[in-house]
Amino acid sequence: MLFICTNDRIFNELCAFARELVQYGKVVDMLIYINEKKLEPIYISRKGVSYYCRKDLKWTGRPKGEIIEKFINFKSDLLIVPVFEQAFHIKWIASLCDTKMIVAPFSGTNNWANILLKLENNNIEEFIKQTVHYLKMINNKQNTEL
Fold first, then answer.
1. Cα separation of 98 and 35, whole Å?
2. I need a labelling partner for 130 at 20 to 30 A (CA). Which of 1, 18, 50, 120 fits?
């Protein structure tokens, strides 16, 4: 999962979603952008959760660093990108990730995701709900597993 943490509510919603995926036996790795010049001590990376900030962006806006490279090179089946605003660094990371499928909100400039979710409001709860719905359809199992 790759996202921009703009407030505690979004962070908590996405962490709860990640815990739900883990309960279904999925491996979840999160890369979270914090729009600060440098990371505060509260943003200590732990298993499955890494952070980056403005100091991790080159002057061109391109992300740099070991955390970014590790996330990009991690082989996965799915990348979930619940980012509603345009951010070059998110697009850059998502485009280079070693993943089979990317889920992201619909926008006219989104040419890097495979599954685009059109939402009435740019609402994180609705994004999660639709993501789960379409993953279940793709999985095509008769049970409720993701």
1. 25
2. 50
CA atoms within 13 A on the CB side of 72: 15
Confidence of residue 142 (pLDDT cuts 50, 70, 90): very low
Q: What does DSSP assign to residue 7?
A: S
For 139, other C-beta atoms within 10 Å of its C-beta total 11
Please state the pTM of the whole predicted model.
0.89
Q: How many helices (H) and strands (E) does the chain have?
A: 4, 6
Residue that has been written with the tokens 């070693």 in this structure: 98
Strand partners, 116: 104
Report the residue count for the chain: 146
Closest CA to 66 of 58, 79, 56: 56
- The predicted-structure confidence for 101-141, as pLDDT tens digits, reads as follows 999 999 878 888 999 999 988 889 999 999 999 988 887 76
Residues sharing a CB contact under 8 Å with residue 94, sequence separation 6 or more, in sequence order: 2, 79, 81, 102, 104, 112, 113
Q: Name the β-bridge partners of 5.
A: 34
